[in-house]
Specification:
This protein is α+β, with helices and mostly antiparallel strands. The protein has two domains: 4-82 and 159-236, Rossmann fold, CATH 3.40.50.300; 243-357, Nucleic acid-binding proteins (OB fold (Dihydrolipoamide Acetyltransferase, E2P), Beta Barrel). The protein has helices at 48-56, 78-81, 98-108, 113-126, 142-154, 173-190, 201-207, 225-230, 235-240, and strands at residues 4-11, 25-32, 37-41, 63-68, 71-72, 83-86, 161-165, 193-198, 210-215, 218-223, 247-250, 252-254, 257-260, 263-266, 269-270, 278-282, 287-290, 295-296, 298-304, 308-315, 318-325, 336-339, 344-348, 351-352, 356-357. Strands 6-7-8-3-9-10 form a six-stranded mixed beta sheet, sandwiched between helices. Strands 2-1-4-5 form a four-stranded antiparallel beta sheet, covered by helices on one side. The chain has a four-stranded antiparallel beta sheet with strand order 11-16-23-24. Strand 7 (161-165), helix 6 and strand 8 form a beta-alpha-beta unit. Helix 3 (98-108) crosses helix 4. Its EC number is 3.6.3.20. Belongs to the ABC transporter superfamily.
């Protein structure tokens, strides 16, 4: 287990980068706690796998350092860093049995045979492959092979960190849920530092203690699922987290009041007078349809998804999403919306602005 420090870290795949835009991973300075479970979350191309490969030692950064427990490992090999990494697609030895695949990392390090046998049996049970332990990997399905890869990554108890690069891509949906649960259980039992790369918000939010949201090569927010939902630090976080994502509405702000096309919107804090690109961020869960007050909307359609209804509307020509209770009746007279002031975030040039008590 290790505390991981990213010190002035950045990376470009170009030999001579000339501007910030040439960097796939823009400058990072973060400390990730020993024994915590992190998920790197973002869309394709945002820098998640680049960062993971720098942490693992498969890639050397263009600048900066990476430290494990305050020891500089920037130039250290992957094996010297004592990490286990599981990749997006299964990496197994086809000619070996499942048992031998799982045992390989332990045999390679000279572990005692009795310990190897016990540990392989435990991991076989964890990944649901006890009955296949003596089968050769060659004839197994892709998702079974990926379970072997996961198991081989988890079989060692002495690693500094466990790194997962979208490991459940080829796993069927039901097994995904089971394996995420097992990974979380493993983390609680052994306290490994875990870093899990994914573009799936459900995977990230159910697995991690803290989610690291990346956008355009930057870490834009690190927080708990609740923090990401309630106080997105960047408009991308609000858009990417949640289904539907956060509504982003152009506005002007003065003091504890916003103006949207001349209609006043109360805020719970005082923001002074803001300049730049000013927007309000409001989750669909905190938008209320009304008949007589608020901002004018036009309802386009209502989607009943079982647990609640999603109302697709338009506000001054822009899409607006509203989450209504399953039993709520949506009448034609509901042509206005209000926002819960405590749940309205204010953004300037895409970054959340902190107000003061009103």
């Amino acid at each position: 287990m290790a505390k991981i420090t990213l010190d002035n870290l950045a990376h470009s795949y170009l030999a001579k980068p000339s501007s910030e835009d040439d960097f796939a991973l823009k400058e990072l300075n973060h400390v990730w706690g020993d024994g915590e479970a992190y998920a790197l979350l973002g869309s394709s191309g945002c820098g998640k796998s680049t960062l993971l490969n720098i942490i693992s030692g498969l890639l050397h950064p263009s600048q900066g350092r990476i430290l494990f427990d305050d020891i500089d490992v920037t130039q250290a090999t992957t094996s010297a860093r004592n990490i286990a990494q599981v990749f997006q697609f299964p990496v197994v030895y086809d000619t070996m049995t499942v048992r031998d695949n799982l045992a390989f990392p332990l045999k390679n390090r000279g572990a005692e045979p009795a310990y190897i046998a016990r540990r392989v049996q435990e991991i076989g049970a964890m990944i649901g492959m006890e009955a296949e332990l003596d089968k050769r990997a060659r004839g197994l399905t892709a998702d079974a092979k990926q379970k072997i890869s996961l198991g081989r990554g988890m079989v060692r108890e002495d690693v500094n960190a466990l790194l997962f690069d979208e490991p459940l891509t080829v796993i069927d949906p039901h097994m995904k849920w089971e394996l995420r649960t097992q990974l979380k259980s493993l983390h609680h039992e052994f306290g490994h530092t875990m870093i899990y790369v994914t573009h799936d918000q459900t995977e990230a939010l159910t697995f991690a203690d803290k989610v690291v949201v990346m956008y355009d090569g930057r870490v834009v927010q690190i927080g708990t699922p609740q923090e990401l939902f309630e106080r997105p630090a960047h408009t991308f976080v609000g858009y990417f987290i949640g289904s539907p994502g956060m509504n982003v509405i152009p506005a002007s702000v003065s003091g504890s009041q916003a103006q949207v096309h001349g209609t006043a919107v109360p805020l719970s804090q005082n923001f002074g007078t803001l300049a730049g690109k000013v927007e309000l961020g409001v989750r669909p869960e905190f938008v209320t349809l009304t008949e007589g007050e608020g901002l004018p909307v036009t309802i386009r359609r209502v989607e009943d998804v079982g647990r609640h209804k999603i109302v697709r509307a338009q506000l001054f020509g822009k899409d607006l999403n509203i989450v209504a209770a399953e039993g709520q009746e949506i009448s034609p007279d509901m042509t206005r919306v209000t926002f819960m002031p405590d749940h309205v975030n204010v953004y300037v040039d895409d970054w959340r602005s902190e107000g003061k008590a009103a």
